[in-house]
Amino acid sequence: MSLNRKIADWRGQRVWIIGASSGIGAALAEALDRRGVRVAISARRADKLQELADRMGRGTLVLPLDITKVDEITAADQRLSEAWGGYDLVVFMAGDYTAMHAWQLDLAVARQMIEVNLMGFMNGLSVTIPRLMAAKAGGIALVSSVAGYRGLPKSLVYGPTKAALINLAETLYLDLHGKGLDVYVINPGFVKTPLTAQNDFKMPALISPEEAAAEIIAGFEQGQFEIHFPKRFTRTLKLLRHLPYSLYFRTIRNMTRA
User: Fold this and answer.
1) Among 87, 149, 158, 184, which one carries the catalytic annotation?
2) pLDDT tens digit string along 10-63?
3) Is the pLDDT of residue 77 over 90?
4) Which of 6, 24, 57, 73 is deepest in the core (most CB within 10 A)?
5) DSSP code, position 241
6) Any catalytic annotation for residue 184?
């Protein structure tokens, strides 16, 4: 059952990707561009955004911003609306990650991850929800992670921020779907990106950013609320969510050798 509208034709759609300078965001931008979408790309590094735009169509709009600064998001939203008259879909993909055990808790690092992974999304929503509600149409996609399903080793701060995003997307859906807006939560498994490059363990079912982008687009086209991938990995984690704690903790320790 589709919980959102199915996107049958991408041509002419206006999509704003926040967190597009590398990894999944860059791959998604290029894939949508090839489908005739007008794409706006945002991230902190203007040079990386311009390199990406140079590989894409002439209509790509480059909007550098820091997601932790609401005034920069507001300025980018204004520029985009002046250029295009609005947007049909905004994808929040910015993220920060540092592997951390409980005995390694660093408050400065923790605060930065929370500021980017959670408060940054709140900043963006405070700007984009009014714009989309005024149009009475459009969609919001939050990129979370399967790390938000249940507690995992080395995910002391990252996991809780992603769990919060899943909850946030569910709440947004309940609030906004009846007002004509679509809401998506995207939960990738392991994807080969600059963030996962710091992992010092074998990542099961590792996929490329291009494969991840294809999964996301397919999810939009099918009108899915939760877009998760790769299925051979995420379905296992979904099953683990239903185990009682005694079995879950034992299984995760055996799987991760933690």
Assistant:
1) 158
2) 999 999 999 999 999 999 999 999 999 999 999 999 999 999 999 998 889 999
3) yes
4) 24
5) T
6) no
